[in-house]
Amino acid sequence: MATLSTVRARIRTRLEEQAAAVWSDVEIDEAITASLEEYSHLFPREESVDLPVIAGATSVDGPEDTFDVLRLTLGNGRVIPRRASPVGNSSGEELAWEWFAGTIHLSRPVEAQTLTVWGLTGRAIEQVPEADIGVIVLGAVWRALQQRGVQDFKRGGSMGGMNASDVIRSAEREYGRAMDSRRRRVRSRAMGAG
Description:
This protein is about 40% helix and about 25% strand. The protein is of the alpha+beta class.
């Protein structure tokens, strides 16, 4: 299982920097966070959470850090369907739900109970599959180089006499190839499972 410190060390190896001479730990961690956020949105983690609701509730705050809700069940196990586009009067509408701005909105009030919510969430570095840590490392390297290039440009300098934009583009291409490879792996598994 990868940790923040092991990923940071791999990034420093790629940047050929053993100690924090050019990039501070904070800058490296910021690059890791940005790479992890992108990865999480492309390859989210599915999670189920129980949420208590009070009697008469028509909305409930969704689980923290949830990108999307996939399924909702009542305390008795009954699945509540996702709400389609409402048509006409809602007085006869069956119980349904919709997800908006971090809140689950119900079409009708419910009794006090616990709802089970299946949703898509982000990942912590420890939750990234070991086979994908290299993608996170490449993304963070590209972002660290990009940020350094911006800082050097502001100061009117360059990256050790090299053309900074070429170094950054090279890192971006390598990261892009790794992400494309990861996407193909997901698609081929999903197609093979059917």
